[in-house]
């Protein structure tokens, strides 16, 4: 099937509407505001939240749909990217077709609709990875990471925006939970223990390592088990899981034929005044200095790509493997930055790598709005 431009696949009036909304100003919210606003949800608050999302989400979705049409090197024409673009335009159409929300019944219907939009976009990351892969194959060995700076910057904006859209939808939907777990406000946990989340994420990563290699290094966690602070546990789990998974793989592959027992991975949780910092240290041999700038690009993975060209990402679940499709680190860094934190890697080639995950404790930085 020949690639269809959006103007051919959708009515002209819809595409014009996308461009009109894509020029409007986005409105960011902070973690603190989300917590304070959602602390005691009632019908009035849910209505205000739905009315905000009814105006805000189409702006954010339209911006991404426009960018997906204008990517360099012919990336916009790749079948996987066209599919993602269609998801964005369909979601924009659904949002715009929804009437003004005036009462509780409208709010409830709106909530069901945005829930469905979130599900529609579940496989955006692997689908985009597939599109970039299709591009890499087409460009062949002459590809140079520096040339693809534009694509890297686009993907940073695109995924950061996606984190925001999913956070806003998820937060609104979760505020409807009639029996929320204690200390939670939607997706946010007011008393999250970073030690506990780090332990759970480590166990999940270690289970995959055991499955893939038959053995796995030990993981030791140090810090104050009673310390808590407000954060989104699913975000932290994703980031720590990714870092520990990388460390496990590096150590496992370095010591696979060694008589020595594989050294443990160490996780240290420190609570400062501004930041909570989680350090993940391994003795997996490190990364050469020349390779360090590449680890945060979307076009670099030392592992085999688990994505099959023929996988139907409209329906299929993506296989979970030790080494993903090279997106773990750059996306983890975006999750950290979304609430004002950061992720840094320090490496000693010939010894190991330290990852420093900084999480802002203050919670008052605005969402970055690409």
What is the number of beta strands?
8
Q: What is the H/E order?
A: HHHHHHHHEEHEEHEEHEE
How far the N terminus sits from the C terminus, by CA atoms, comes to 32 Å
Give the strand order of the largest sheet, numbering strands 1, 2, ... along the chain.
3-5-6-8-7
Low-confidence stretches: none
Query: What average pLDDT do the residues reach?
Result: 90
Number of helices: 11
SSE layout and pairings?
Blueprint: H1 6-9, H2 12-22, H3 31-38, H4 43-69, H5 79-97, H6 104-120, H7 124-139, H8 149-174, E1 184-185, E2 188-192, H9 194-213, E3 219-222, E4 229-231, H10 233-254, E5 265-271, E6 275-281, H11 328-338, E7 342-348, E8 352-360
In short:
The protein is α+β, with helices and mostly antiparallel strands and 370 residues long.
What does this entry look like structurally?
By secondary structure, this protein is α+β, with helices and mostly antiparallel strands. The protein has 11 helices and 8 strands. It has helices at about 5-10, 10-20, 30-40, 45-70, 80-95, 105-120, 125-140, 150-175, 195-215, 235-255, 330-340, and strands at about 185, 190, 220, 230, 265-270, 275-280, 340-350, 350-360. It has a 5-stranded mixed beta sheet, covered by helices on one side. A 3-stranded antiparallel beta sheet has the order 1-2-4. A hairpin with a 3-residue loop joins strand 7 and strand 8 (about 350-360). Helix 5 (about 80-95) runs antiparallel to helix 7 and helix 10 (about 235-255) packs antiparallel against helix 11. The longest helix has 27 residues, at about 45-70. The chain is globular. The two termini are about 30 Å apart. About 40% of the residues are buried. The model has no long low-confidence stretch (mean pLDDT about 90).
């Amino acid at each position: 099937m020949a690639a269809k431009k959006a103007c051919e696949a959708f009515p002209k009036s819809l595409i014009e509407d996308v461009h009109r909304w894509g020029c409007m100003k986005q409105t960011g919210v902070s973690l603190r505001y989300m917590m304070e606003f959602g602390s005691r949800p009632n019908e009035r608050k849910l209505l205000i939240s739905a009315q905000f999302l009814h105006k805000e989400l189409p702006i954010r979705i339209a911006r991404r749909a426009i960018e997906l049409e204008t990517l360099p090197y012919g990336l916009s024409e790749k079948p996987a990217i066209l599919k993602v673009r269609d998801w964005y335009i369909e979601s924009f159409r659904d949002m715009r077709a929804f009437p003004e929300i005036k009462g509780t019944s409208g709010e409830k219907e709106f909530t069901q609709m945005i829930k469905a939009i979130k599900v529609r976009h579940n496989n955006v990351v692997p689908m985009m990875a597939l599109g970039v892969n299709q591009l890499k194959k087409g460009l062949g060995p002459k590809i140079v990471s520096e040339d693809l700076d534009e694509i890297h910057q686009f993907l940073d904006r695109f995924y950061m925006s996606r984190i925001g859209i999913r956070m806003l939808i998820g937060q609104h939907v979760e505020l409807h939970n009639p029996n929320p777990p204690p200390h939670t406000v939607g997706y946010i946990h007011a008393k999250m223990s970073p030690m506990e989340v780090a332990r759970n994420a480590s166990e999940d990563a270690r289970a995959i390592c055991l499955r893939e290699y038959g053995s796995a290094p030990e993981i030791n966690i140090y810090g104050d088990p009673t310390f808590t602070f407000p954060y989104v546990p699913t975000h932290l789990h994703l980031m720590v899981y990714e870092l520990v998974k990388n460390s496990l793989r590096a150590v496992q592959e370095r010591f696979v034929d060694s008589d020595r027992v594989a050294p443990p991975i160490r996780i240290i949780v420190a609570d400062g005044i501004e930041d909570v910092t989680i350090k993940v240290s391994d003795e997996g041999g490190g990364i050469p200095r020349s390779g360090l700038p590449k680890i945060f690009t979307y076009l670099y993975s030392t592992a085999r790509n688990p994505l099959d060209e023929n996988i139907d990402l409209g329906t299929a679940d993506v296989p979970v493997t030790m080494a993903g499709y090279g997106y773990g680190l750059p996306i983890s860094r975006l999750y950290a930055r979304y609430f004002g934190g950061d992720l840094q890697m320090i490496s000693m080639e010939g010894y190991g790598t330290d990852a420093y995950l900084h999480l802002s404790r203050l919670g008052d930085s605005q969402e970055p709005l690409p």
